[in-house]
Amino acid sequence: MPEIVFDTCVISNFALTGALGILEGLYRNKAHITDFVAAEILRGIQAGHARLGAIPKAVQAGWLKEIGLRTGKERELFKTLSVSLGMGEASSIAIAKRRGLRFASDDRVARAEAARLDVPLTGTLGILVKAVRTGVCELRTADAYLGKMIEAGFFSPVRSLREIR
Domain 4-123: which topology? Predict the structure, then answer.
């Protein structure tokens, strides 16, 4: 699997439904969040979303890495992107572009910016489909997680992965 950097929305979908194990199964030691995404997650935990606490625990466990902008080119692209995107999405796209990572986002504007920059993309549904196709979880389990994500506020164009497999 290629390395991947998650925006807040995608990784939160998995954490809030107890499905981070899917991400670990697919991307163990190849999964990243930026320090800006980590800060957004911390704000979510402080606002009472306790299940998001699984994300810092994944960083502590080491299979999920927290990374920051490290080059001038990354910082320059981040500044440009942050005009129209949130800090989490802007930092994730800048790092994905400069380091050759896949970007995981469900945000329409962020995905459009990433596509414009030729950054490989996926999202919550793509990850769930990949988990089923690679045997990380069964279709029934992935559909159950999708249902929980929808109940938690995720907008999905499908109710079952059977519709897109």
Answer: Rossmann fold (3.40.50)
